[in-house]
Amino acid sequence: MKKLDSLLLKVFLYGLPLIIVLAVFSYLHDSGIIASAYSYLEHLYNFAGFMFALWMLLSVYLGIRLMFSGTFREKVLTRITFIKERDEREVMLTGKAAKTTMLTTLAILIFFFCLSCFQVSVYRIPPENAVHGKTGVISIGLNFSLLENPPQDAPQTSGQKQNIFTYSGLPVSNSAVILGVIAWQIIAYNYSMRRLMK
To answer: Which DSSP string do the residues of 23-83 spell out, in sequence order?
Structure first.
């Protein structure tokens, strides 16, 4: 199993540049920049789709192996995060840096969770609907759901409300948040490690 995991990991890493090139080609083909008048371009386009499917299956397999195989996780993620434990002192410093990183990441995730739940809307209502002569309204709410809700149409502001400001959750996608947290983990760990080594 170790040899198979190692082989699949190499295929995944060395195949990444090919996948990027095929993604660019597919984008150009879909947008019509590259004409598909030649049959070999259609074959290449179909081959790109097949390669994407294989690469995605390989990504899922490696992700599952990283979660459930301690030795595979240790081998791969220590290289990605630049963890080096050459003696007892570095092992102790690694533990401190990991604790600091985990706590700061948890703080960031709690902050993101709060921002994703809050909803704020500032708008003006027509003078005939004014409350005590005030036409400015601030609406504050919470939105929490375990499943992703389909996007709802924004309320019509013409005639009834004049929208000034609306905040209904994080403006970035889930993928961007996850990628940011991964990058933060690596950067925060290495920064903490360097600070502790001094």
So the answer is: HHHHHHHHTTSS---SHHHHHHHHHHHHHHHHHHHHHHHHHHHHHH-HHHHHHHHHHHTT-
